Every structure is written in structure tokens, then in C-alpha cells.
């Protein structure tokens, strides 16, 4: 895109979720959501091939419909209560429609069908933006309205999301679709704990962002998008190969890596609230996710493809570095021991 | 007066159904314009005469025309025939959804269920609130004004970035 277009679109992409996060009036929140949707569309359709255009159109339709539902629910709330404050949303029908609309925006089950295809149709970096930055605005709206939302509805959405995120990812070989189902599952964990403890939901969200950014940056550096090409990743960046396995195990939630911390705390909180069946089903459904993370790490790190004995690394045509990858990897592997310090940040 | 609001409200829904129940989006443009005009009429009846005028002039007469022209420039002439039964099926399902949503959401079969629907002021001067609301836009709501203006500029650039490249445009009816 031309520099003039980039100068408008990239600041809008940054500004959209920030507007929604910093708002206490529904119209400003909706404006921020629309600005972020509009700004990401030409970035997705940048390459102008039919797959990318299809992903952009699907994303736009889904997000615009969900924004319309948010607008309708806030207008109904303002009609019955006379005020537009986000944190005082008392109309129950409005809260239900708002929850549905935000579930559509986030890609929670049963509204998750667009997410794997949209992520598959875009580039790796755009998929990273879609799964991390674009989730900020809807989740901030959920945090702001958390005390008025319907807990059983959120629990059902969260449970369905983790189960579908686990089962749906089992048959995938494309890494972006696997990351989509991983996003669905992690968001399910976040939504389950939302009305019980906002602090834990925010901790889960921050750690999910760190781990997802790590995984996508590794995918970009290795230039792989499917499991079959990750088999040759040990020839490209051997150290990063090992770290990719640890990042995947962190995403799966294995101790003593970082990803275990939010799952542990969430299960503890659910047990304290006597929601044992839901806690058990969440833990069991994360086993399904563990399987496909383990499959990726099996084919990338644990096994070697058949090769001659003195097989060396690939030729480097250009030095391709991402300086933030080291920090992200360290954070996504080693944050467990400082959990009490992290609990004070949110 | 309430009859007019009901009439234009019905027209709004009618033309919006006409927009979406088409085999190709290009056939729904006239329906879109008429539906937006009916929406403007509803706004006038509800007391937002200035807002309705700005909507009609700037959105319909400015931005919609710009976006429709840029889309028409990159569209290929893949002529799709208009199948009666397919469109009729869409219309039936759409109307069923609207009726279901209306019954569930409002539980009001008659027009009286809406209550007071205008935004006129009380008192001897009887000015419509939306004129004073527009003046609020310039003093108390200046930041929102800037943000909304930025949003419109962004929409323009997004449309232009999407239809950039006339001969290799992919925004077409495949």
C-alpha cells in the first residue's frame, strides 16, 4: 500500500482498541471497535489474491454484524435506563445480546467458525495481529461489564469453546488453523473465569498474548505454515527449534512452564467456588489441545526427518532476525516462579 | 403522525430486505438508497431533522456515491441472472427472522408500545434538541468530533486501498 494509506491505516489500527479500552460511553466504545475493524481490512487484503480477499470479507461481515449487535444492545440499554455508561448496564436483554455480540467478535464457540478460515487466508503477521491485538477491545468491554453479565451463559460459552478448541484442532495440519483453535480454547478459559475473578482473566489474557506472539514470530522466522515444513526447521534455527517445543508445551499448559500458571489458578478458583464439574471438564478438554501441540513439537523438534549423516544447516540468504523474540520466549517459558508478583499487576 | 413513523419504518425494513435478498450485491443498490431515505424520514419524524438532513446529503449523496462508483469501477461484468424462487426463499426466511426478533424483543404489536418517540424540547421556544445537540458537538464533544472525523477519513482510505489497482482488482462478483 502507498505510504499515504499506511499513514492513516496503521495509526487507526493502534488507536481503535485504545479508544474502546479508554471509553466509558457506549458510542465511543463502538466507534473504537469499528475503527479497528476497518483498519485491519486493507491490511488483510493487501496481497489481493482471492484467498486473502475472502478472509477479509468474512472478517468484515462477522465483525460488522457483531458491532451492530453491540450498538443495538447499548441503545436498548440507553432507551430503558436513560444513560450510556458502560459499567452500569442493567438491562438483562441488553447484557445477553452484548455477550453474544462479544462472543462473535472474539470467536468463541459456537460462533467460532470464521476464525480458522480467516487466519488461514492471511499472512502470518496479520494472523498474529488478529489473534492478539484485535482481542483487546472486546475483552476490555467484557471486563467493564463483567458484574452485570449472565454467569451461566459465560460458563457455557467458555466450556464449549475449550471443548471445540480442543477437538477442532485435532484434524489440522496447517499451523495457522491450529493457532486459531488454540485461540478459541484459551479464550474459553478466559471467559469461564470472567465473572468469578477479573484479575485471573486478565492474567490469562496477558500470558496468552505473550505465548501466541512467540509462536507466530517463530512461525514467521521459520517461514513455515504447515506441520510438514516444520520438520525441516532444525536446519534453519536449531536453538529456536528447542524453544518452539517449550513454547508449545507452555501453550498446552504443562508445568513448570508459564502456560500452566493461568490454568492452575483458574482451576483453583473454580474449585473454591464449588464448580468442580466445570473445572474437571476444562482440564480434560485441555488434554485435547495438548495432543496437537505435542504433535507439532514431535514433528519439529523431537524427531528428525531422514537425512545424511553430515547434514548441516541451510544456506542463509539474508539475516532474518526478530529482536523481540528472545524476550517473548523467555517470558513464555519462565514466568511461573514470579506468579505472586504477577498477581499484583492486574 | 405516528402512522407516518410506522409507515416509513415498515418501508425501511422492506427496502433493507430488498438489499440483502439479491443474488449479487450490485442489484441491491437502489433498494439501499430507498431504504436509507426511509430511515432518514423516520429520523425526521422522531425529531432529528438536522441529523436526517446531514445523513441524506453527506452519507447518501457523498460517501455512498463515492464508494458505489469505486466499486463499480473495479467490478467485472459477471452477469448473474435473477432467479425468482431463490430470492423469494431469501425474502421469506429474512422476514421470518425479523418477525421472530421483533416479537421476542419488543413484545409490542401496536404502535402505542413505543411510548414517547420524539426529542422535542419543552417550554416556550420548542426547539428541536438535535440542533442544540449539534452545537454541543462543537464545544463539549470536540474530541468525539475529531475521532468521528478520523473514522470517516479512515473509511475513505480503506475503500481506496481495497479497490486500488484497477485491472487486477479482485473485489468483484465471482
Q: What is the domain tally of chain B?
A: 2
Q: Helix and strand string of chain A, N-terminal first? A: HHHHHHHHHHHHHHHH
Structural class of the helices, strands and pairings of chain B? mainly alpha
Summed over residues and divided by their number, the pLDDT of chain B gives a mean of 79
Main beta-sheet annotation of chain A: none
Q: What helical percentage do the residues of chain A reach?
A: over 70%
- Largest interface chains and counts: A-B, 26 and 21 residues
In total, the number of strands of chain A is 0
Please summarize the sheet with the most strands of chain B.
none
User: Low-confidence spans of chain A: pLDDT under 50, at least 5 residues?
Assistant: none
Mean pLDDT of chain A: 93
Return residue spans of chain B where pLDDT drops below 50 for at least 5 consecutive residues: none
Pfam family, one (chain B): Oxidored_q3
Keywords (chain B): Electron transport, Membrane, Mitochondrion, NAD, Respiratory chain, Signal, Translocase, Transmembrane, Transmembrane helix, Transport, Ubiquinone
Family (chain B): Belongs to the complex I subunit 6 family.
Subcellular location (chain B): Mitochondrion membrane
